[in-house]
Amino acid sequence: MTSVPMLPSARQWPLWPIKGHHKGRQATGFSLVEVMVGMVIGLLGIIVIFQVFALSEGYKRTATGGSDAQQNGIQALFYIERDARVAGYGIADPSILGCTVLAYDELRVPTDFNITLIPLQITQGADNNATTGVGRDSDVITITYGTASLLVMPAALTQNMPSPAATFKVANRFGFKKGDLVIAAEPGKDCTLAEVTNLPGTPQTDNVIHNNGTYTNPEGATVNARYNKPSGLGVSYTTNGKLFNIGSLPNNNAYSILSGNLMLTTTLPTVTSLRIADNIVNLQAVYGKDTVNTPPVRVDTWNAAPPASWDRVLAARIGLVARSANREKPNTAGVCAATTTAPSWSGGAFDLSADPDWQCYRYRVFETTVPLRNLIWKP
Fold first, then answer.
1. Residue among 195, 189, 101, 199 nearest 142 (CA)
2. d(CA 194, CA 176)
3. Distance, C-alpha 76 to centroid of its chain
4. Would 336 disulfide with which of 322, 332, 358, 359, CB 3.0-4.6 Å?
5. This prediction's pTM
6. Cβ–Cβ under 8 Å, residues 235 and 164
């Protein structure tokens, strides 16, 4: 009988591993070299991303700065051109152009002041050429016009004034109303400003009264005659004089550059100072004059010199420079090259050298030529 071999007990198994049996799986992961390589690749990616971002931001800043300069320049030129187009309305009479208007306003300090009766006056910058107007300093443009809705022709005085505060006697007071400001003028004398307080009916239909104190305006309200000095302004007129109605809200506006802003300073109807537009760095203007002064009327000279007589100024050429708000970064050599050539207009190149960093900005030039129609169509 064949015997069956017996399997060894557990204690009898050999201690060495059975052939084909594997050890337990070891923990897996990145080696230090692999981690360092990954970090280097990640850093390179971050550097590339930031370079692209910086380049994109630079383009965005340039585009935005150019857009801001465009809007500011358009706004600045719009205000100046709007006023220039009505310059001289109600006062474009050769007999009074250039006269000094003595005035009084009880709300001002001091109450006495004066303006020059010029439709559009260009005050050249201190360092600019007096004839060509070329220079680095901005000009000041002062524009004066009336707002009377009905009367543009002056009324002749029909009686000598016994005192500076006396009633004006006129040939025709059509278009005058209470609250209107009037300018009395006579060759060889200063002009004076007054406020109409009463226009009595029959039999005083030739009277234009300008008393101080209170009066009832056309709307029925009681108001002060703020522009009438109690004793008058020291000038009495004769029958050679005229009375100009310049409306209830005449304008005497001066445009100038202050700390990179276009400023509007008004003298009439009240004293105010407003910022019109930001980042306007230069303002230049010249007169368009008819030096021959015989028909046909035409501009034959453009320069900054005051005219022989103000009725010869028929137009104004105005140019301004708007600047981007942000300063561009210099190049690798540390030199600003955002703008390499000074911007220019019909009057020549704008001198921006007052700012040593002017080349670090971008600029937009705006220019217009405005015909002074109230002088072209003067009586």
1. 101
2. 13
3. 4
4. 359
5. 0.81
6. yes
